[in-house]
Amino acid sequence: MELEMYDHSDGKLTDHDRELCEGVLAFAAREINLTPYSSMSVTFVRNPEIKEINRKYRGVDRATDVISFAINDDDDDVFEQLAGEERLDLGDLFVSLDKVDEQALFLNHSKDRELAYLLVHGFLHLNGYDHETKEEEAKMFAIQERILTNYGLPR
Q1: Which DSSP string corresponds to 18-41?
Q2: What SUPFAM superfamilies would the database entry show (predicted)?
Q3: What is the pLDDT of residue 43?
Q4: Which residue from 94, 93, 113 is spatially nearest to 103, judged by alpha carbons?
Q5: What is the dihedral of CA 132, 136, 140, 142, to 10 degrees?
Q6: Segment 136-155 mean pLDDT
Q7: How far apart are CA 104 and CA 152, in angstroms?
Q8: How far apart are CA 51 and CA 46, in angstroms?
Q9: pTM for this prediction
Q10: Calpha distance 45→53 (Å, rounded)
Q11: 30, 63, 81, 128: which has the highest count of C-beta atoms within 10 A?
């Protein structure tokens, strides 16, 4: 999987965060058997920027932790249509590093666990998983926890 990362965090993003992002997303891609001919981006932001994105695209005027913009939200057959070496663009994630810090403290776990959780959660959304119903939630969250546990960041 090709991964592009962008830093809009005003120096808050560390090399360790970048390595964790690359590692956990590559691991997650293998866990769900994602085609190697896929790509996505992750942009690391602070609360003011993610608040503006949340307001503009979701109509919610508050900062959130992760927002995913799936390229193929309306095309259920896109994964079957991939042929040869055509690149499958999954979409874009925006992650608030301020929320990573806040939520890690609130949940009493490591920043690594929180960052990986948000990355995997958003990644699964980009791959068609959702939690609108109890059944969808159970499936998505089970996969999410399996990935994080197997990666070495259990709850």
Answers
A1: HHHHHHHHHHHHHHTT--TTEEEE
A2: Metalloproteases ('zincins'), catalytic domain
A3: 98
A4: 113
A5: 130
A6: 97
A7: 16
A8: 9
A9: 0.92
A10: 10
A11: 63
Asked whether residue 8 is marked as a ligand-binding residue, the answer is no
Which pairing describes strands 38-45 and 88-96: parallel, antiparallel, or unpaired? parallel
Q: Which two tokens stand for residue 74?
A: 């309306």
Please indicate if the annotation marks 121 as binding a ligand: yes
- Decide if pLDDT at 81 tops 80: no
Q: Identify the CATH number of the domain defined by range 2-151.
A: 3.40.390.30
Which positions ≥6 away from 152 have C-beta within 8 Å?
none
120 neighbors 144 (Cβ within 8 angstroms): yes
125 annotated as belonging to a binding site for a ligand: yes
Please give the structure tokens belonging to residue 38: 């896929």
Q: Are the C-beta atoms of residues 70 and 42 closer than 8 Å to each other? A: no
CA angle 55, 93, 47 (to 5 degrees): 45
